[in-house]
Amino acid sequence: MSTLSISWRNMGRNRKRSLLAVGAIALAQTTLVFVNGFMAGSYDQMLQTITGPMIGHVQVHHPQWREERAIDIHIDQLDAVRAQISGLTEVVSVSPRLYSAVLAASGEKREQPADAEPGMIVGVDVSAESARGGLLESLPAQAHPQGNKVAVGRILANRLKVKEGQELALIGQDVDGFPASDLFAIGAIIESPVDLVKTRGVVMSIQSAAEFLVMPDQAHEIVIRGSNVERADGLAREVAALPALSGMEVLSWREAVPEFSRMIDMKDWFDLIFLAIVFIAAASGIANTSMMSSFERTREFGMLLAIGLRPARVVQMVLFESVLLGLMGVLIGSLVGSGLVLVTAHTGINYAALSGVKAADIAFGGVSISYMIYPRFELRHILFGFIAVIITSALASTWPATLAARLEPAKAMRP
Question: Which of these three, 203, 234, 256, is where a domain ends?
Fold first, then answer.
């Protein structure tokens, strides 16, 4: 305790130098906690968008579907397939989807067929897609597609100049190649992070889509959401082993969108980069302060050694002083960084406004990612900073402490 109290008093010998060292470490720790919290929030948002409305945790297709995207390449015996998948303990929801390209036009302007725009029927299980993370999560219950009522993507609706309550005419082909057309009521204009839905989507219940396309008990895609996204690979293996899915393509979200998987895995590298910043700040600040302090106190150390103080005690004094400086800096930085993360986790950070961009989101890989980021607090970033500073402070002060302990009392006390 006496060594610790002496080290504490010695920190005040040169307050400016001590404050500079503490400030450098505090700034580095603040950067570590806040930037990593920001990155955690942005990657969480990306992951939720990908594994929610876009991909799910696991996807099932006909082996040729992703390459051809043809209406007649589909999964048969949907009810039996769905029943087997739903029987797995990890499965939370099973959502089959049907897709078909169509021409869409306002049903209010039948005399102007030239106003038609290319669209895409997206037939979904309304109940499954209305749950958290689904395509219809943002829609109120009264606006859900059912029967002859559909939801139209915002950009497609703008191009057709249609709004809720109006009619929409769809012209396409059924699975056998015969012409198919019908009028639908627009129940909602949908804003979706999935580009296909937002730009061309006509979302309807899978029963209505199956009737329009003459595809009973069939689907082009089955989206499976499990209880934990981290166990998606294991769930994909369980699904692939089901007898009803023999010969089908079963992919976890990482396999379905490998480019996004690589981007999300980069977060660990960002954590290491900013942890390295803390190491560098602590090493430079502590080493300089410890070295200068040791040189200035040469006579003091010589006198202490002359009256019988053990060299190990001198080493302890220098090490304790350095570690205390580091802990003060990392404590201040942790408090400031955590405060920034917790405040912005509620308010959000408009990344577009900071970078001078006017868009609300950015499109990449078929998904729209919002520029509004909500940082996420992670205790491990604070713990990493504390551990890094303690280790770095001890290592950076080892050499000055060793030099001080090896002083010859007679030479050290000379004026």
Answer: 256
**What pTM value is reported for the model?**
0.73
Pairwise CA distance, residues 103 & 93, whole Å: 31
- Of 412, 387, 22, 362, nearest to 195 by C-alpha is 362
Q: 30 lies in which domain range?
A: 2-50+264-412
397 and 343 in a single domain? The answer is: yes
- Chain position carrying tokens 């302890």: 316
Residue owning tokens 């929801």: 93
Q: What pLDDT score does 325 carry?
A: 80
Domains in the chain, number: 2
Which residue has tokens 């897609």? 129
The mean of the pLDDT values for the chain is: 82
Q: How big is the CA angle at 283 (ends 330 and 32), to the nearest 5 degrees?
A: 40
Cα 358 to its chain centre, rounded Å, is 22
Residues 106 and 190 in one domain: yes
From residue 123, how far is each of 10, 141, 317 by CA, in Å? 73, 17, 72
**What angle, rounded to 10 degrees, do the helices at 267-296 and 258-265 form?**
10
